[in-house]
Design a protein that fits this description.
The relative contact order is 0.11. The protein is of the alpha+beta class. Helix 1 packs across helix 12 and helix 2 packs antiparallel against helix 7. The chain folds into two domains: about 210 residues, Hypothetical protein, domain 2 (Endonuclease III, domain 1, Orthogonal Bundle), CATH 1.10.340.30; about 100 residues, Nucleoside Triphosphate Pyrophosphohydrolase. A hairpin with a 2-residue loop joins strand 2 and strand 3. The strands form two sheets. Strands 2, 3, 4 and 7 form a four-stranded antiparallel beta sheet that branches. The structure holds iron/sulfur cluster.
């Protein structure tokens, strides 16, 4: 890119004047930055902030030692509603690794940050630049889109294009203001260089932008197909208790769901929900025969349901079924 210094200056100047104020932008604490980055990986800013997840998580686990010592139940409870629970476990693993490998002091070397469990190149760059002010690049979906358009690159962004985006981000990152530059590039993608038709008239870097057809970029390789899944669950309630099943090893380990059963009673509730690349049709039936708890299943008291970690789809089903049955 010609006049890379001018480009950096334009991004940084725009961010300083227009950048939004988020709590994770007010801190230099690498732990708090890591929490925000992991939370934002698959969850919208509006959800993380609007529903108070970030502040609540940091209230409950204010530092590395607290998180490293967290039990499964309280960890998943603090994460409930955010989905992708593996992220919470990785965060705790990362906290434990900092305690064990680095004596509780968060490492500032990018290679050491990258070596923490669950930390990929993006998150390592985010912590290095946002918390430690190091000139490390970051590329998320927003930055990739901006770079593809700036460079008029037609390589698929979910393939070769991403590698190119990293190369450009590495060359372009501002050595004097990496934090503002990285935040600025990301926010440009969120607010102006949006998917579909971008707002090029308001763009502070339009002078450097090579594409003439921004709405056609970035190009995506073939999408993953969505798989339809049907699940048949049982709703059984007796003596102020409801039968639930605790999930074993896997992404949602430790959470409680309605038990799976072949239908043997009326259909009580039906809903569709999406999870990763699955589209699930959930059908919950009652039973006309006496129900016994199977392996991993337990009768849970209704008043205690609020303390259990229950996936959102099952929580909605239970709210409706218990509301209507009570
Ligand atoms: S000029 Fe338009 S397409 Fe280019 S970076 Fe700015 S908003 Fe994106």
């Amino acid at each position: 890119m010609e006049d890379a210094a001018g480009f950096r200056g334009a991004v940084v100047k725009w961010f300083m004047a227009e950048g939004l104020d988020f709590p994770w932008r007010r801190t230099r604490d690498p732990y708090a930055v890591l929490v925000s980055e992991v939370m934002l990986q698959q969850t919208q800013i509006a959800t993380v902030l609007g529903r108070g997840y970030y502040a609540r998580f940091l209230d409950r686990f204010p530092d590395l030692p607290t998180l490293a010592a967290a039990g499964d139940e309280e960890l998943l409870k603090a994460w409930e509603g955010l989905g992708y629970y593996r992220r919470a476990r990785f965060l705790r693993e990362a906290a434990r690794a900092v305690m064990e490998r680095h004596g509780g002091v968060f490492p500032s070397k990018p290679s050491e940050i990258l070596a923490l469990p669950g930390v990929g190149r993006y998150t390592a760059g985010a912590v290095a630049s946002f918390a430690f002010g190091q000139a490390e690049p970051i590329v998320d979906g927003n930055i990739a889109r901006v770079l593809m358009r700036l460079m008029d690159c037609e390589d698929p962004v979910d393939g070769r294009g991403m590698a190119r985006a990293w190369e450009w981000a590495e060359v372009l990152v501002d050595p004097k203001h990496p934090r503002e530059f990285n935040s600025g590039l990301m926010e440009l993608g969120q607010r102006l260089c949006r998917p579909g038709v971008p707002d090029c008239l308001s763009c502070p870097v339009s002078r450097w932008c090579r594409t003439r057809e921004p709405a056609g970029l970035p190009i995506k390789a073939k999408r993953h197909e969505v798989t339809e899944v049907a699940e048949t669950l049982l709703f059984a309630e007796r003596d102020g208790k409801v039968l639930l099943r605790q999930l074993g090893a896997g992404r949602r380990e430790g959470m409680w769901r309605l038990p799976e059963r072949e239908p043997s009673g009326p259909l009580l509730y039906q809903a569709k929900y999406g999870i990763t690349r699955y589209r699930v049709t959930m059908a919950v039936h009652g039973s006309q025969k006496p129900v016994r708890a199977g392996d991993g299943e337990a009768w849970q008291e209704l008043e205690k349901l609020k303390d259990l970690v229950i996936p959102p789809a099952d929580r909605r089903a239970l709210d409706e079924l218990l509301g209507s049955s009570g």
